[in-house]
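Final report, Chapter 2: Outcomes

The project's central promise was a pipeline that accepts a single protein chain and returns its three-dimensional structure in a standardized token representation, suitable for archiving and comparison. That pipeline is now operational. To close this chapter, we reproduce one record exactly as it appears in the project archive, with the input sequence first and the structure output second.
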Amino acid sequence: MKLALLIPDGVGVRNFLLGSFLRLANEQTGCQILHAIPEHQLTAYQQTSGAHVRWDRLLPYQETPASIVLRYALGYAHMHWADTLSMRYIRQQPITGSWRRRTVQHTARLAGRAAASPAGIQLLDRWHCRAVAQLPEVAHYRRLFAETKPDVVFCSHQRPPVILPVTLAARSLGIPTATFIFSWDNLTSKGRIAAPFDHFFVWSELMRDELLRFYPDVTPERVHVVGTPQFDPYAAAELQWTRAEFFARIGADPARPLLCYSGGDTGTAPEDQHHLRILLEQIRSGQIKGNPQVLVRPAPVDDGKRYDAVRRAFPELIFAQPAWVHAKPGDWASVLPTAEDIQFLANLTRHADVNVNLASTMTLDFAIHDRPVVNVAFDVADPPIFGKPLWEYYYRFDHYRRVVEIGAPRFARTPDELAAHVNAYLENPALERDQRRQLVELQVALPIGNASQKIMETLAQISR
């Protein structure tokens, strides 16, 4: 099988270039990678890719006014029809920017509302694909694939608009296409899949059911449960450090408990620095027992500067900025991971005694290692930043409502509850153990460590 692997952003690099997936692809007949990695950073990934990999840069995607309006209208139509809580919030966001942007958005919203049905969505999708198919980018990829002759085109992330010309070019040549749904919340809390793929790779049966619900034109045999490679490193024995080695690397005492505060990005978790300060104050005052150490790991897209005041006030805080390279600060698509960071996170989630986060995927990362998690669910600002309390906001989203129902973490709806839950877990880490296992089994169908192999096997079947 000759694979064309489409990597439009940093999370695709993490999942498919820095783990075992690329090695498995190299064991086949070779791999072509279409990527958006800046030239000065590409060498680091090429050095570990092997001799049978061809690297081709993605072209900038120059949309026409018509294709932009159709793309936004399609997204709004999908969100009106699917109508999840998160999608309602997205639809209600105010329209800002230049008069051209405001005009496009208003037009798209009106068209999307009018087309909010399966038939209307399919009609907009056909019009959108027809408009984009005429662009020179599609002709470029068609010539490229005619030269390289891949057996299947596989995309690492289903949402970036830049993937559409590649997908349309492949389909016009009869090359099967597939995409990976890269996160557990994407189908219920984000917009529409950006291209009409032939096949869809999902984490679990739960995600499979969601995809079939929100995309009624997709037939069940086109959806494949493969797990997710982002957790494969957690099962890699060669990446594991002992507790003593990990604590030595972060400059901490292995005899004392370690709390990890996992930050979100500034848009979704704007009060992280304040929640962290409250946690540190509770430790300093003795409200949290056992003299634990605290490590804060910002989100990879966050430059971490908003924690500076907390770091000055609490010099004992361990600050662990993720080892991702910021090509364009604040832009998830342009922040690129390193192998060093993957190994660090695999050991952090293994050796931290308790994790604290705000409705983050990190709840699942730590649950995989059976580490207790406390979710922050109280506001610092009054009135709340999001217009309603955090508990009524993030913890009602479809994907996270299941976490609440299972009870895998504990939820701190006040600062006093934060201290109480951390104390309870430090005293008895086995609390909610069964619920953590249930959450992992629900969200990640395969045993951890098997996803890359399963994806390669499924791609081979599709290519035949």
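Archive annotation: The mean pLDDT is 95.
This record, like all others produced under the grant, will remain available to the consortium after the project formally closes.
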